Amino acid sequence: MFKTIKQSLLIMCLPLLAFAVNAADFSDGKHYQTIENKKSETPKVTEFFSFYCPHCYQFEPVALSLEASLPEGAEFEKSHVNFLGGASAQVQSNLSYAYIIAKQAGKEKEVAAQIFESIHMKKADLHDIKDVKQLLALNGISEKQFDDSLSSMLVIAQEKQMQDQQELFSKLGALKGVPTFIVNDKYKVNMKEIKSQAELEELVKYLLQK
């Protein structure tokens, strides 16, 4: 069953990577959804994701390409959720901490790639915090550095911010699954209507300017 799901997700992602589009007129309610929320003060794109989500794993190249395409001054923010089934909220938050600590060290992309691969290719569940520490150690983040960072107020606050964000956008009806892309805290991208990577990037640039 997992193989079938994985193949279906790959089929969904391939059009995003393979085709380009011309300029298009985007409409609220179709290509994107306006959220009843205050617009962010600075331009940003937030991707809500989970390392345990196979769809997020397949979408990672899409997210990386989108990040690289953003105009100067726009921030790309990955916010790891802890509400998926199959693992406790604490186990999922451990991976949020790992991502935050890796980002502080400037190694978030390398660590994210290894976490995704460990879970979806090597079938490691990473439920034990020791396994998470070992993975970060492979990227030059020692166990002591991990423990020290884990107890720092900055890391604790950033993980809480991730939880606060997922709770807020869930209550607003904008976050029902992952991956979910939200622009300027105000617009949710409707991925079902997006036909190509180019169209996604064009839509996000359009929403950043609204």
Helices and strands, in order, run as HEEHEHHHHHEEH
Largest beta-sheet characterization: 5 strands, mixed
Shape: globular
CATH topology of the domain at 51-180: Glutaredoxin
Residues in β-strands, percent: 5-15%
Q: Any low-confidence stretches, pLDDT <50, length ≥5?
A: 1-11, 16-20
Summed up, the helix count is: 8
Overall average pLDDT: 90
Helix proportion range:
40-55%
* CATH architecture descriptor of the domain at 51-180: 3-Layer(aba) Sandwich
Question: Radius of gyration over alpha carbons?
Answer: 17 Å
CATH top level of the domain at 51-180?
A: Alpha Beta
Amino-to-carboxy terminus distance: 42 Å
What structural class do the secondary elements suggest? alpha+beta
Describe the strand arrangement of the main beta sheet, using strand numbers: 1-5-4-2-3
Q: How many E-type strands?
A: 5
Instruction: Write the CATH homologous superfamily of the domain at 51-180.
Output: Glutaredoxin
Family: Belongs to the thioredoxin family. DsbA subfamily.
Signal peptide: 1-23
Protein name: Thiol:disulfide interchange protein
Organism: Pseudoalteromonas byunsanensis
What does this structure look like?
There is one protein chain. By secondary structure, the chain is of the alpha+beta class. It has a domain at 51-180: Glutaredoxin, CATH 3.40.30. Helices cover 52% and strands 10% of the residues. It has 8 helices and 5 strands. Strand 2 (44-49), helix 2 and strand 3 (75-80) form a beta-alpha-beta unit. Helix 1 packs parallel to helix 2 (54-69), helix 1 (2-18) crosses helix 8 and helix 3 (89-104) runs parallel beside helix 5. It starts with a helix and ends with a helix. Residues 1-11 and 16-20 have low confidence and may be disordered.
